[in-house]
């Protein structure tokens, strides 16, 4: 997928690349689904390219990516191309293995790039180990930390990195991405995906891919009318599915957060505090879903209850 909205990031990156001294640590910050990982890989290839040398196709030996590995026992499934589950965190062992490679020279040129995606999910020990490399980076080594929630990084890591921000996109831009990447989606589905995206084209594409339309409609109904009999929350649980994987759970929480954000645009000022509280609670769930073993039924019930509270707060505000 060709990502849009990266023009300013590329301009800042290339200005730094052409400058006298390239900073060794970068935080690529912005909402999930903005294409930061794709940018990181493309930027890394520019950084390791040697003047006058042909561009290398495929994986580059001087670009090392640390990301979630398959859980123990699922490594063979990955090799066979079968569905597999990922570990919740990027481990300290991964960071130490990377650091061992930094004791050698780059393979093809004078530069090497370490991409960590997402750096939000580094274990505590992994963060502390990474800090040592950021404090004393080997010559020619650069770090690109992809992060959806920069506040989760250690302050000492943030202080050693330059921040490259990725903005959310306008609705019109996201609709164009959907029309190009998901031509089979009808206008109504695209409109719902745009409304639920929160400015993230990745979230909009995920909305279509995971068929989140029914969930979105139920969330809107709960937030608007409440759910005193718990009927809508039961339907929400059915739409979520009995055994949703972490990707679907996270997408559903992000979807609820987008519903709350949209509601903030049309409610009286007196209802804003309740919306802000619900948004904060959903933001907390976003950080917990990748690492906690939530019971799906309880998770969707909590989401539904937060949304139902919006209707109650609006009635109180209008009362």
TrEMBL record:
InterPro entries: DNA_Rep/Repair_Clamp_Loader, P-loop_NTPase. This is AAA family ATPase. PANTHER family: DNA POLYMERASE III SUBUNIT DELTA, REPLICATION FACTOR C / DNA POLYMERASE III GAMMA-TAU SUBUNIT. It comes from the Bacteria. GO terms for biological process: DNA-templated DNA replication. One of its GO terms (cellular component) is DNA polymerase III complex. It comes from Alteraurantiacibacter aquimixticola.
